[in-house]
Amino acid sequence: MRTTLNAQEMPLHKIFSDDFLFTIPSVQRPYSWTIEQAGELLDDLLEFIEHHGITEKNIEQIPEPYFLGSIVLVKGEKPEAEILDGQQRLTTLTILLSALRSYLPSEYADEIDDLIVQKGSRIRKIEDTYRLQLRKKDNPFFRKYIQEREGITKLTDKTEVKTDSQALIRNNALYYLERFNDLDESILTTLPSVIATLCYMVVVSTPNFDSAFRIFTVLNDRGLDLMVTDILKAKIIGKISEDEQEIYTEKWEDIESSLGREQFNELFSHIRMILQKRKGAGNLKDEYESILENFSGKKFIDEVLVPYSDIYMKIKNYRTEFAGDEEAIKILEFLNRIDNVDWIPVAMYYMFLNDEKISEFLKCLERFAASHIILRKNFNWRQSKYSTILRELEQGKSPFSEDSTLNLTKEEKKEVIEALNGDVYKKLKDAAKRYVLLRLDSLLSKGQPYYNYSVVTIEHILPQNPPKGSEWTKNFPNIEQYVHKLGNLVLLTVKKNSRAKNFDFQRKKSTYFQLKDGISTFALTTQVIREKEWTPEVLERRQKLLVNLLIKEWRLE
Question: I want to staple 199 with a disulfide (CB 3.0 to 4.6 A). Which of 12, 81, 130, 462 is the partner?
Fold first, then answer.
């Protein structure tokens, strides 16, 4: 059966009318607009009034409306409508109207009140109904201080709040009241009419939730407020009895708040990989619907989401979470520098199953991940390998055994050594060659190296195109044989200098390599600074040293 879709352009007085009773579904994030965003809305409206010279007398003559964007609703024939997109604007507009209602005389305030509340009937025993209902935690605060007549006058910067959203509602309301003190009375009396009659929105509605979500993803190309995890939240929390929904909603939102929305969404893709132990075949939403058939809402949150989020946060905050385990910190420092996140589900699953030999496992995982960025293995190949490792862990197979997929084959070890002895600069991707050089620097450094520099560049010691007749061409008659080798590369924390890179060796050491008291930021570079000359013999000696360091560290013998 085809889903009915309705899209209409409406003035705000039709949106804030008896045709709609808005609610914020549990999938939505809390109210999050700051004073900056609330201020932009007011500034835009004031600029619109000024640009068109709008007054109360000429408002009907203004041909051009002010477009406030679109809202996406799940709505049938009845007024009840769930807001899938647009809650931030509708909430802020309600705050703005409430501030105007309290500031203006009763002849204006009474009509503004009609935009905020649907009037009941004393005769028919029908109570007033507020046109917008926020999430359960914030709605009582919103009703008391914003929607109720004169409620906003009770607000101060000391008014107690229980959530970040309530603080934002309070701050934005007080901000509007303060701004009104600087506006002419004629502007203030014109503003409600502009909002009600000249501000338009496109209202897109469909009675089907999934259809509304698809529409939303097409319309909202500014970056989704709503993510797939929000849809999953509605389904998972919806499987829990009403008397426990608030408890589990709080557990969910605590995790989301701790991670941030982007990482929270990433967590779910890792959990999918762990539970399915295969590369995703469809979109996250559809695959999770299949996964959730095997879980109650409570079981999923308690036995999957909570423990895996703890492990994920531990991996992300490794410097504090692994305090005291210097080896684990060092390995995670580098795993987090791998140019993909495919290794994370494997690390998470191992830590879920085991609390021993974590450092040893991470070393094996880092060797596996690093080797395959050096060998330029693609996404599908990696996903296939990591899926196999996950299945082996599930079956109880030791990841440290000789026949574990986590171990490199003899052929792979040989290929990695050949790649390290080849033209590293030319043949490896930027992320891979930078990884290799930083890994080597850590092996040469004393103590625990951290690499938080805003710029890390790779520089050739022997230049790629040295001037004819220079020291370089005399010492290296066959430049191509050496120039892109690992032994000829160093790391710098400055941008490349096209002029300085052709300096002779002594000048390059003392200027371009940022020499200070005989050392550089990187041990790898200091090693070169201490050389008296740069010849094929010195380069070959360094090449052998560096490759052997990685052979030993990654057990490539």
Answer: 12
